[in-house]
Amino acid sequence: MTKTYETLTLTVKDAVAHVSLSRPDQLNAMNRAMFREIGEVFRHLDTQSDIRAVVLSGEGKHFTAGLDLKESGESLFTPGDADPARVREKLRRHILWLQDCFTAIEQCRAPVIAAIHGACLGGGIDLISACDMRVASEDCWFAIQEINVAIVADVGTLQRAPYLLPNGILRELALTGRKFTVQEADKYGFVNAVAPDRGEAIEAAFALAETIASKSPLAVAGTKAVLNHSRDHSVADGLDYVATWNSGMLLGEDLMKAATAALTRQTVTFAPLMESDD
Questions:
Q1: Domains of the chain (ranges plus CATH)?
Q2: pTM confidence score
Q3: Residue 215: helix, strand or coil by DSSP?
Q4: Least confident residue range of 128-137, 176-185, 192-201, 242-251
Q5: What is the enclosing helix (H) or strand (E) of 35?
Q6: How does DSSP classify residue 275?
Q7: Are 204 and 135 in contact (CB under 8 A)?
Q8: Where is 174: in which H helix or E strand?
């Protein structure tokens, strides 16, 4: 797999992809190019039948300082004689585009594990909230920064984090913009594990990814799809959805392979998913 990006690095080892935010001199602040490439890389990985899990990390001192405010401020400037309704409609489409870039992580068939170190601010919370799991280093700290710059967080934190943090705690964090430590994040279950440093956080994320990659890719993709659907629907709708999913997917070969492996205590290799013809 050969793809190059301006603001990211992508490497693949066996069935695990590694996406790294790569603007270390700018503290991995998220400019338009990074948003676009995050969407592009996860849509690309979703099409790769041999990718079974993804690790997302950041290069340099911090995971990310959040939105690139300088570029964002410049993009909001419009001529004084522009029609205000058209300006607002354009801004709405831009926000929806930003949201879609991170939704690509949620929609990727392969589970995504974020390995976080240093600061993770503002848009970084939006980013890691779209991931399936989060591993953090002991020096890690977080802030839902938008309230401090007079913005309502609008790229996913307020929609996804209620399923990751207690509601009252999330409201406090979102309304005060205060710093919260990795110890607090661990206490409330926002992160899956805490590692001593960045390198070990990435190692722990890869260990999770490799375990997931050893499972049936049909079952993994199905479990992620059903969990996402259940979050956004009633219990009754979720039960109906998983019944429909399994009525089709249980016809495959993976169930018998997994059952045989469990009985014989042997490892098993599952075939990759099929790539689309698109």
A1: 8-213 (3.90.226.10), 217-264 (1.10.12.10)
A2: 0.93
A3: coil
A4: 242-251
A5: helix 32-47
A6: P
A7: yes
A8: helix 167-176
